[in-house]
Amino acid sequence: xxxxxxxxxxxxxxxxxxxxxxxxxxxxxxxxxxxxxxxxxxxxxxxxxxxxxxxxxxxxxxxxxxxxxxxxxxxxxxxxxxxxxxxxxxxxxxxxxxxxxxxxxxxxxxxxxxxxxxxxxxxxxxxxxxxxxxxxxxxxxxxxxxxxxxxxxxxxxxxxxxxxxxxxxxxxxxxxxxxxxxxx
Length: 184
What we know:
- The protein is α+β, with helices and mostly antiparallel strands and about 180 residues long.
- It contains 5 helices and 6 strands.
- Strands 1-2-6-3-4-5 form a 6-stranded antiparallel β-sheet.
- It is elongated.
């Protein structure tokens, strides 16, 4: 049994064959999908601990001042207040956002929620009502009722963004485009 284990270990870690490489990729996928991702979810208290940004709805052209001059007027908050918000400079398509359980959310926080879309939506909270939230993408002209972002209930919120990793989300975006192109 020990000899078999040693042979498998050598094949996986030291063999430079194509088959060994394929097995390594499959093992890496399985470890991330079934161990790392769920473990991170348990630690952060959410079913979606990491999400890829797949649209430009939170993108800011230029720096904060340029964005505020062009689009900040929609918000009923001062430049100084908005600058204190998390991710006040927005973020981009292709970024990865790390989420935690959304127990305490405030205006200005970025949340991921299930709206009226096939994919979860990541936008900024712009209003908190008695039993609902309203969000808006920083790069959008308004809050969109058809996306379901004008009446978000607490049970629709998947998490609150706490960290951004630039560009890493393109791995998922490209992979989905390739698989989507094959499946269609």
